[in-house]
Target: TetR/AcrR family transcriptional regulator
Amino acid sequence: MTTNTPRKSHHHGNLRAALVQAGIDILGSEGLPGLTLRKCAARAGVSHAAPAHHFDGVDGLRIAIACEGFDRFRAAMLDAAAQSPATPRAQLKAIARGYLAFARAEPALYDLIFSFRGKLGLNDALELASAPAYQVLRDTCAPFVPPGTDPVVIETQVWALMHGYVLLLFSGRFHETGAPDDGILALLDRVGTDPTP
Model:
């Protein structure tokens, strides 16, 4: 005798990735307060106990999601750079466009990846995940570092410009006027040059 009982889906070794994607989906629709292990399990179609085998509580899930977020963030910058001329200035503006595109496409994930220092602290997994994304910034800024200058100075200028701009976007600062991306990107023309008197 056969039964027509539906079978629960199995992820054949991809359960961790499925739970991370479920978490990203929940993060995008409900924000960080809505992100729970139980909701991720339900969205992934597994038992509510399944995430415990992959994550050390909800903080472990958040860290895993942030690691995936850093990978996507890096990919967005590199994809934009690949579509631009290979000159140093064009590449700098390209990664900035990729930075903005990622933040706009996945604002909750962007918030999450930059939220850990004050809350959970950066653990080894996050350090490893964030380093390649930062390396994109470092490599792209390198041609603009004046001799005798610490590269972190230029890297911080570019990062602060882009991150600050994103925070203003998220706060609704440009709601009525529209976001002046071209004006912000034009400021990158001044990176690594002497200011006019």
User: Anything to note?
Assistant: The chain has two domains: 11-55, 56-190. The helical segments are 15-30, 37-44, 57-82, 88-105, 107-113, 124-141, 151-170, 181-187. The two ends are 89 Å apart (CA to CA). Residues 77 and 98 are 4 Å apart (CA to CA).
